[in-house]
Amino acid sequence: MILNIILLIGGLALIIGGANCLTDGASSVAKKWGVSDLVIGLTIVAFGTSAPELVISTISAINGSAELAIGNVVGSNIFNILMIIGCVALVLPIKIEKSIMNNEIPLVILSSLAILFCANDITLNGGTTNLISRSDGLILLLFFAIFMRYTFSIATKGGGDDSAEEVKTMSGIKATLFILGGLLGLIFGGQFFVDGASGIAISMGISESVVGLTIVAAGTSLPELATSITAALKKNPGIAIGNVIGSNIFNSFFILGCASTINPLPMGGITNFDILSMVGASVLFFIVGWLFKQRTITRLEGAIMTTCYIAYTTYLVMQQL
Prior knowledge:
This protein is mainly α and 321 residues long. The chain is built from 12 helices and 4 strands.
């Protein structure tokens, strides 16, 4: 048990460190090639904060741990919306732009519904088992390609780089070492993390689905949480909105798309309750933007969101007792 905890914590540390190194190195290279800070932020940095989920879900799919792969994505999306947005709103109410309310947040709802439809083969297609197949994965990847095209069009029309984080340049050798070191950290850290999480699930008699939906999901969402809380403390909580939106769409379309294309993912212990909770969190995200104070997520609404996450997690744990 102790060894599994060490593997879990050590693996997570390697993943987060590797993601940071990979992001810094790749951003520096992209900057030298003349890519704008805004585009770097919307692509490379967005990939960097979602790299832990990508590595965990991909390795889980390769190892045949489908519940861990799906639970990681579904649980991370629920955590991102309810806990990250909720906690940031508690620190500082979040003002949401009208364009985000009308365009980006509905995309988060769409990505959640896409997973719901892909995961219900028995109900929708008369199949014998619910799974996210390779064809489902390819469809999700096509959705991701459309989203990336939309993202680049927004970056092109945006004009300025004011909303992007300034990218620090480094020498070519240093950038290469950062990229290689980051990749190694992600690969080995991901394997350690999956082994540790699976070992904990087995030793405690907890299903991989619950571990994926809770421990793994929260752990891999730490980069997003850190970024969002830091933004709130700097009196710029709106950054948290873009961070969560990009991460959730990336998780749903790209990460789950890649994992299911590598190996079809049976739903197993991941139920419609979990997926509908993700859909519900996405819809709640949209609703709180309009209630009470229009296009602002207030502290009260943040408290409601965090309470919903605590209630969801408590329910999962109680089901295992």
